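Q: What would this chain look like folded?
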Amino acid sequence: MSLGGSLLSVQSADSGSCLDFFKKFKIGQNALSGHQLALFRKAHQVAFTVGFWNQKFTDIPDWAKLYVRQLEADSVELIPSIVFGNKRTLHLFERACIEDFLRYFYYFDHKIEHITLQEYPTKFQTIDFLTSWIKDYPLFAARHQQFVKKSCDCLISCYKELSRTVHGTIVTNVSRSDNLSASFQPLEHPVKEKDTMTLVFREIFFLLSLFHYSSYGKCELEEKQLVCQHLSEEQKRVLSGI
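A: My prediction, written as structure tokens:
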């Protein structure tokens, strides 16, 4: 990814290139207009910003890089899920992004636990435990605690809602072709899907910025603008120190 010039302009141009790529697939033509297009662009903004984050913040411990790289990979998968209209896959990767972020936050400071997890995959921490760790993170300033709790609660709420789709899909039709036809079609409620995605990544980018507050503060204006496009006005004020 080239970071020359205005990052938002680079992001816009890259979105156009991705759109042209997917227009080659006739199956996705109906998903590339109106509210579906707005959802597509939101997913691209998310993936682009995560990619920037992965390149910009190079002082991440080696054992934590695994999780932020997985976050980048899973965020990219949001785009084809939208184009091909697979709601379950979209929700699966959104949920995975939440898990990637929570694990990144926790294992950043827990090298031994990371090593243990690699050797004993069943030794994973639950989502509730990981969220509690963020809420009680000792290095957050006291004035930020209410905002952190609010973001964590929102993330957990979204996670539970996404899980209903991931775990609640039941195939009842014997015909595999009919099942596929039902799965790969424009998403039924693109406005709602965009709202959910906005909520999920608003909290992820806010908590990431707060966690790396010093590094975020050293970013150039256009780099902050790239992150802040996902944040609420309140979150922007918190990060600006107002």
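Residues 30 and 186 are 7 Å apart (CA to CA).
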